[in-house]
Fold this sequence. Notes:
It is built from 16 helices and 22 strands. The chain is an alpha/beta fold. The strands form four sheets. Strands 1-12-22-21-20-19-17-15-13-14 form a ten-stranded mixed sheet, with helices on both faces. Strand 21 (519-522) and strand 22 form a beta hairpin. The protein starts with 21 loop residues before the first strand and ends with a helix. Residues 1-14, 65-77, 84-115 and 567-572 have low confidence and may be disordered.
Amino acid sequence: MGWMSDLNDLPRSDDVTDPTTCAWPAREIAAAEAPVTAGTDRYMRAAAHAVARAALRELRQGPNAPGSAAAPARPAPNPLSVTSPMGAAATPVSPQSPATPMGGAGDGTGAHAGPGWISGAPVLLLVGGGHNGADTLLAGGLLSHSGCAVSAVLVTEHPHPVALEEARSHGVTVYGAGYRNADGTDRDSVEAMAAVEAFLVHGGLVLDGLTGIGATGPLRPDVAALIAPLIAAGEPGYRPLRVIAVDLPSGTGVDDGTVSGPVLAADRTVTFTCLKGCQCLPPARHLCGVVEVVPLGLPVPTSRPLARRPVDGALGDYLTRAVPEPGPDDHKYTRGVVGLWAGSESYPGAAVLTASGAVRAGAGMVRLAAPRRVEDLVLAARPEVVPTAGHAQALVLGPGIDPADTTRADEVRTVLRSTLAPSDGGRQSPTRVPTVVDAGALSILAELLTEGLSCTPLHVLTPHAGEAAALLTALEDKKTPAETAHGWSRDRVEAHPGLAAREICRLTGATVLLKGATTLIAAQQRPVVSVDGGPGWMATAGSGDVLAGVLGAVLAGAAARWEQGTASAASGPVLDALVDSVVAGVR
């Protein structure tokens, strides 16, 4: 199987340079944009129009009072949408009618077009320094011009001067130490807090422009105190307000998706040019709401993205690539043979679930190596399963394997060892077959990797957070210098899942599928893939066993098609088939 020797050079089924699905480091985004944005406010104004347009859509849905008939159901996990490119300051703001640029005459935002809650609707701007604060002020001016009652709370002593003046000239009431409104009244920080609390009495729309992609770490204590009442109002869908994050929810880790302090969860995030890491990687991912990418026409970095998200609404495409329809000449061997080492006396049902996943995902044949009791249970549920080991185009090792069962663990250890390569480049020739390593096999793998063996990208490790922590702890103890090892716990993995997935990938050489509410796939020389959208009902015992079987079937099918010379860009190589199957499986 020489075709598997260098998967990094194989074609990919998705465009990993698409700015509407890919995220780059903030530093590289800023460097790519700087030469174009210097000396012009064109893109800032276009961004403001996009934010105002999104705000009008939210306002037309009506007030969101908890317990009222108008209160929406809990929103689905943040889907991704893409707006039309907007490269000019005069881009229309209204989805209903043409508009004039800010400062022009006329009903620029179509405030009276169609039903909804526009005239007099309360809008609260949370404004920091930098471009996001300026975008927020300009958008607030547009909304005030549309008839909304807009107030701005400034948390910086250096707001964008032009944006501030235009917002005030359009009737935005500004709160912030040292700033005076047109009537000469001073708005200090005490009044700013009072403005936030008064806003909560009736609710409305919040635009979060406190920080931008240049910010790091948690919010300042005074800023955290300012938004505390808004956070306390409840979760999205269950509070008397809606929140739009301008570019990103303030206080999230821009690149790594970490959350190190209070964050006001958004119902919608309007982000510009391309995705940011926090919109792909949990836990920040879950605070973004619906993510709307606005391509302003700015350049994106030319480097490899750090993360990407599969396109929403393309389930059929992913499913077709992962499990293509069999052709008239196909037979059970060309559709892929899966070999399972699953189930034990302690956990016999896991083998039933894994075998069912493989069968239902289209495997041509499923072989099972298991104790007699486990075989009987599997055959009762899936009589087409062949209860003997033999040639297979993909292996699934570990579901339901109890490492304390030494006989069963030794069987899995022998098979797994045959698939590993010597880390020193020795002459041992591993069995180059896609291998899913799950559950009990993960601890066995950790032992083997400390004996001078290593994985290949064809090994797909499928830990949940607890298993990932145990694997990282075992590997760091042996393979990481003491001065750089930090220790891992389940909580740390859940707080830094992107880092955990990449670290397992680095330490093992394998492809890593870190399971969770958002599943992450980390592979050598590829951006981390972030997949979510599945219902919470999937969080149940046994779902991981089914997933292991599905992955085995998909990988076996991809290997079989490649062996037969029928693989193409449409069906994709092995790792792309893996991504396709996960996307299709969780949506």
